[in-house]
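Each lists sequence, tokenised fold; shown next:
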Amino acid sequence: MPLADAYSAVMALVVTTDRAVLVYLVPTVLLFALAIVAATAKGRKPLEWVTLFAFWSAVIGLLVLLFFHVVLHRPIVRLELIGYP
């Protein structure tokens, strides 16, 4: 059975973002992660700094996304599947 034929539906995966919020939230999240790494970086190696920065950026970013989605009911990133017919 072929994966697509003349009678299959057309599907599209669409990712939409709230640009106005992301312009302010991304730098804020990165600066908070940098502040946490700077406060806890004494005696660590540079690769540990990068790892801690990536970890705290991900944790803070996910918490902010969760806060906006659950508490404020304003999804920042939306993933939609659109099909025709």
Summary: The helical segments are 19-40, 46-71. The chain has two helices and two strands. Residues 15 and 31 are 26 Å apart (CA to CA).
